[in-house]
Structures are given as C-alpha cells and as structure tokens.
TrEMBL record:
<keyword id="KW-1133">Transmembrane helix</keyword>
<feature type="transmembrane region" description="Helical">
    <location>
        <begin position="85"/>
        <end position="103"/>
    </location>
</feature>
<dbReference type="GO" id="GO:0022857">
    <property type="term" value="F:transmembrane transporter activity"/>
</dbReference>
<dbReference type="Pfam" id="PF00893">
    <property type="entry name" value="Multi_Drug_Res"/>
</dbReference>
<dbReference type="InterPro" id="IPR000390">
    <property type="entry name" value="Small_drug/metabolite_transptr"/>
</dbReference>
<keyword id="KW-0813">Transport</keyword>
<feature type="transmembrane region" description="Helical">
    <location>
        <begin position="27"/>
        <end position="49"/>
    </location>
</feature>
<dbReference type="InterPro" id="IPR045324">
    <property type="entry name" value="Small_multidrug_res"/>
</dbReference>
<dbReference type="InterPro" id="IPR037185">
    <property type="entry name" value="EmrE-like"/>
</dbReference>
<feature type="transmembrane region" description="Helical">
    <location>
        <begin position="61"/>
        <end position="79"/>
    </location>
</feature>
<keyword id="KW-0472">Membrane</keyword>
<protein>
    <recommendedName>
        <fullName>Guanidinium exporter</fullName>
    </recommendedName>
</protein>
<comment type="similarity">
    <text>Belongs to the drug/metabolite transporter (DMT) superfamily. Small multidrug resistance (SMR) (TC 2.A.7.1) family. Gdx/SugE subfamily.</text>
</comment>
<keyword id="KW-1003">Cell membrane</keyword>
<dbReference type="GO" id="GO:0005886">
    <property type="term" value="C:plasma membrane"/>
</dbReference>
<keyword id="KW-0812">Transmembrane</keyword>
<dbReference type="GO" id="GO:1990961">
    <property type="term" value="P:xenobiotic detoxification by transmembrane export across the plasma membrane"/>
</dbReference>
Amino acid sequence: MAWIYLLVAGVLEIVWAFFMKKSEGFTLLVPSAITLVTMCASFALLALAMRSLPLGTAYTVWTGIGAIGTFVLGIVLLGEAVTPLRLIAALLIVAGLILMKLTSTS
C-alpha cells in the first residue's frame, strides 16, 4: 500500500507544481487554492508512505515523479523547450527512480 500512497503523492506533486505556476505568484484564487490543497494531500500521502518505506527511497521517488511529471507538463501544456540535454537529464532521473525502486527493501 505504501507504494500506492507514494505514487498518488507524486502525481499530486505534479498537480500542485503546475497550479503553482498557474497561480501567478499566488495572485489568482482558484489556482492558489488547488496548489495548497494538493500540496497538503501530497505531503500527507508521502508521510503515510514513509511509515514503511525508507526515507531516502520515499523522498527520492516522490521528488522524481514530481520532477518528471512537471517536466512533461511543461513541454506539453506550457510549450517549454525540448532539447537533447533536457531529455538526457530527464532520462537520468527516470533511471535513478528505477534503480531506487529495484534496490528498495520494502
């Protein structure tokens, strides 16, 4: 169950990061509210996952899901640049996540 909590927490991190961008520095009410609610939910689920997963594994996977998800959303929805070096960096993050999962004892 911890891995499910962690996966959902990571997805919520993507949501709050995206809506933080859309909040224009917390000047728009709805995106700001979505940011804060999803941020709290993401942290709560991360905390639940950390009950049985090692700290380093849980935090690394959580931030990795958020990093890759926001990277993809930035490209797809916000028109951010796709360059070979950015793609390589993203692939290295994914490789690190896979290795972290494979070496986890929980």
